[in-house]
């Protein structure tokens, strides 16, 4: 069964808090509920107490999906990472999450507005040899705790390009699932449809945002930072950019889980209510076209 959720980044940005900083949680949740959204991921304005978060979302007829967790497995081993994650795992599980969204954030530049994407970290062979088994071990530990690790490839991080996603998937064990993010995959130089088809049996979570190709190309050509590109509108909701979403969903005929709407835009330029409603309507249409009911 596919359920449609959203990330509050459609309203308020988590990497640059002033983007949508004036939008209250109540507006976000009311508009999400009215758009027919079934679940929400974690945003910085939401409580980090499991029962409190679960109740807040339930008051709006929604459930908790998951939340981002930054790993630093190039700096510490899997057992140390798991020990450091205990509080984060606890409140997520108490709030009702089934998956843990993780991204390796050693030396990442995606949250630094002054850092061009060209300055992002690129792993050496020796670093890959350390990172991959540690991620597998971490995922196994998290699975024992009762959550499924889904790895978020992301612009500005050590797993950005399709080649890096391939190396990551080849080098990690079955305890690690992939979070397919259509926007990051496309802007990172990949084909979201081809990637969905290639890893259909290991995709455990899906983030859907579209890409405005002219802005994506300009951002890379002119050395913009990730956040400057976001402010300029590199991302939008499904159906408003260049990605073949019906093709993505056709490539995932047996997928069961969450499909998460993300826009990651400046709400002063792109009204969240307008774009969220547009995105949800388009997602439902694309899913139906692909045979998902």
Would you kindly provide a brief summary of this structure?
InterPro entries: IolE/MocC, IolE/XylAMocC-like, Xyl_isomerase-like_sf, Xyl_isomerase-like_TIM-brl. It contains 12 helices and 11 strands. With 293 residues, it is of the alpha/beta class.
How would you describe this protein?
The chain has 293 residues and is an alpha/beta fold. The protein has one domain: TIM Barrel (Alpha-Beta Barrel), CATH 3.20.20. The chain has helices spanning 25-34, 50-58, 78-84, 86-95, 125-145, 162-171, 182-187, 192-198, 213-221, 226-231, 245-250, 272-289, and strands at residues 2-6, 39-40, 63-64, 68-71, 99-104, 148-152, 177-181, 203-208, 210-211, 235-236, 257-261. The strands form two sheets. It has a nine-stranded parallel sheet. Strands 9-10 form a two-stranded antiparallel ribbon. The chain is globular and about 45 Å long. The N and C termini lie close together (8 Å). Pfam families: AP_endonuc_2 (PF01261). Residues 30-280 form the Xylose isomerase-like TIM barrel domain. InterPro entries: IolE/MocC, IolE/XylAMocC-like, Xyl_isomerase-like_sf, Xyl_isomerase-like_TIM-brl. It comes from Pleomorphomonas diazotrophica. This is Myo-inosose-2 dehydratase.
Question: Strand sequence of the main sheet, in spatial order?
Answer: 3-2-1-11-8-7-6-5-4
Question: CATH superfamily assignment?
Answer: Divalent-metal-dependent TIM barrel enzymes
Percent range for β-strand residues: 15-25%
CATH top level label: Alpha Beta
**Mind describing the biggest β-sheet?**
9 strands, parallel
- Order of SSEs, N→C? EHEHEEHHEHEHEHHEEHHEHEH
Count of distinct strands: 11
How many domains, as an integer?
1
